[in-house]
Amino acid sequence: MASCTKIDNLVQAYIDDELGHSERVIFEQHLSECRVCAALLRRHQRVSAALFEVFEEDRLSRDLHQSVLDNLPAMGPTTLHEPDVATVNWRAKHPVSFWRTVAHLAPAAVLVVLVLVAAIIRANWPVATPSDDIMGVVMHSRGQTEVISDDSMERDATKVRDFVGADEWYETGSGSSLMLALAGPSEVRLNRNTRIKVHGTREISVEKGEVWLNIGRDGRLFRVNTPTGNITVFGTSFEVQVDSGRTTVTVEEGEVKVERQKSFKVLEPGQQSELVDGREPTAPREVDVVSMKRWADRIQPEKAATALFEKHVAPQTEQVQLHAERIFKVNTVHGGRPRAVKSIHLNWTPGSLGTDYCGYDLYVTDERSTPLFKEHIPAEVFNDPATSSYELDVPGQPIRGTRVLHITVVPDNKGQEPTDFTNIYAIGI
Q1: Which CATH number fits domain 134-318: 1.10.3720.10, 3.30.450.180, 2.60.120.1440, 3.40.50.150?
Q2: Is pLDDT at 284 greater than 90 in this prediction?
Q3: Rounded CA gap, 86 and 347, in Å?
Q4: What pLDDT does 43 receive?
Q5: Which of 40, 126, 157, 402 has the fewest CB atoms nearer than 10 Å to its CB?
Q6: Phi, psi (deg, nearest 5) at residue 126
């Protein structure tokens, strides 16, 4: 495919219908695959239209071509050593008047003015930049890959360097692959016959297929929703497979929480777990992650797409306000023996009216890091300035035989401000 620089030099000739057949075919093929150059052509066309209107009164009403030819001096055959003396003598005896010279030069002068005006307008024309809802960039696309808008459900072919927006579906066909880079930065690789939805820079849904994710650690949760459960991470590398009512999660680096309703399992590097509809996540088991990742290693970003991402999307990461997770150790022992715990009590410093606080996810494990349950406290609880405490009931039966509870408090980052927790303790029967 022709480079963008070559296409840039042909834009005005294309508008003026001065390209040959082969050049026109190459030009139009490039524009069908490159949104940046297509936008450049539209800007040139708007400038040409503006110039056409500005110089409407000064446009020539007739063709000067024949008139110029009729007034050219007769040229006889000459050589370098034998000048056309008759022609030189004729010109000397019939000097051209000043105003006639001006009239002959007028078309050229108008052309120079047009070029200068066009250059000024182009220099000051607003440059097209991504809108605020841009989440990332398409870094790789092979085979049949499509993007579907959530609003219109219209399907379009996915192209490298396309911008990724919120609430867009991406789908790969048989023998196809796709890679998206999201602000974070995070990488999402899609194997064949895969369908995902991008909700935002830190949340996607996997409807079917196989996805490998490298999540950038910018202090915020990254959530992956599937038909049978959810995955929650900060910064890590892992795979998600969704097939026939089963979700398989495999971890290469970092820590991943595999969740279904109020139950969860924590996966470490080299471990795998499954989520089946109606059941708790399976216990972690050891697997060969290296061989499982080979398909994802073959999907690499293109240089032009990487440059576009670094220019327009990567700077968004610097604007993120980070709210980190906190871990509390809660002692359940009373009188030398662990109490049966029926609820967890939280205290915090109340905020002022109108403050936009985060909600929180609570992950509760015992002293052996065995997962017990998870729960979510919505932001509305913390946004009420009259409230400074909350009691969270243990689901099902009370927790028995545990001397220490580890409670991980994780902000959902749906608000702007973190809560200042002052105390968390267990309430026994």
Answers
A1: 2.60.120.1440
A2: yes
A3: 108
A4: 80
A5: 126
A6: -65, 135
Q: Which of 213, 193, 192 is nearest to 203 (CA)?
A: 213
Do 210 and 228 meet the contact criterion of CB atoms below 8 Å apart?
no
**Any bridge partners for residue 211, and if so which?**
190, 240
Residue 363, φ and ψ in degrees, nearest 5: -110, 120
Contact 380, 345 (CB under 8 A): no
pTM, entire model: 0.62
Q: Give the three-class secondary structure for 255.
A: coil
CATH of domain 326-428: 2.60.120
Give me Rg for the CA atoms of the chain. Answer: 34
CA–CA separation, 233 and 222 (whole Å): 5
> Among 55-69, 234-248, 258-272, where is mean pLDDT lowest?
55-69
Torsion on CA atoms 303, 306, 312, 313, rounded to nearest 10: 170
Half-sphere exposure of 178 (CA within 13 A, CB side): 30
Helix (H) or strand (E) holding 135: strand 134-142
Q: Region 345-369: what's the mean pLDDT?
A: 86
Residue 108 has pLDDT above 80, yes or no: no
